[in-house]
């Protein structure tokens, strides 16, 4: 009889543990904005490279302003991708078997001005020699690890706009 080969899985407990570790480092979570040059097809950005460890042509970095575990909830106040979500207290992660994280950043009007970007990376463990919430790559003392990468159509930043970006990531 032929032997069946099965891929191992990450258990729900494993996902919750990884999320818990991530939340413990929420003060070191930064968004990097970059890729100012055009994609080969501007209307169809390429699939992000899973082996990438940085954002191309970094224009600036902004510290995440909100990082929290969430779960789907039809009465939730967070709306993302056509669904509603509600926050989970860190003390309830394992009870809720949490595996989703809401990450938010707010770019103020004076940040990343007169610039465009097509790529967003989220870094965990990033360290800087500054207390500023918006920095350039020269102010980074330890990059930590880029754990999320998003390629998108061109976003043009004006000097008169604020921009809130939010993602929900599954661990």
What does this structure look like?
By secondary structure, the chain is mostly beta strands. Helices cover 10% and strands 42% of the residues. The strands form three sheets. Strands 9-2-1-7-11 form a five-stranded antiparallel beta sheet, with no helix packed on it. A five-stranded antiparallel beta sheet has the order 4-5-3-6-12, covered by helices on one side. A two-stranded antiparallel ribbon has the order 8-10. The N and C termini lie far apart (37 Å). The model has no long low-confidence stretch (mean pLDDT 94).
Helices and strands, with pairings:
Blueprint (H helix, E strand, L loop, with lengths): L11 H13 L4 E6 L25 E4 L2 E7 L5 E3 L2 E6 L4 H4 L3 E8 L7 E10 L2 E2 L5 E2 L4 E3 L2 E13 L5 E8 L1
Antiparallel strand pairs: 1-2, 1-7, 2-9, 3-5, 3-6, 4-5, 6-12, 7-11, 8-10
Short description:
The chain has 171 residues and is mainly beta. Helix content is 10%, strand content 42%. The strands form three sheets. The protein has a five-stranded antiparallel β-sheet with strand order 9-2-1-7-11, with no helix packed on it. Strands 4-5-3-6-12 form a five-stranded antiparallel β-sheet, with helices on one face.
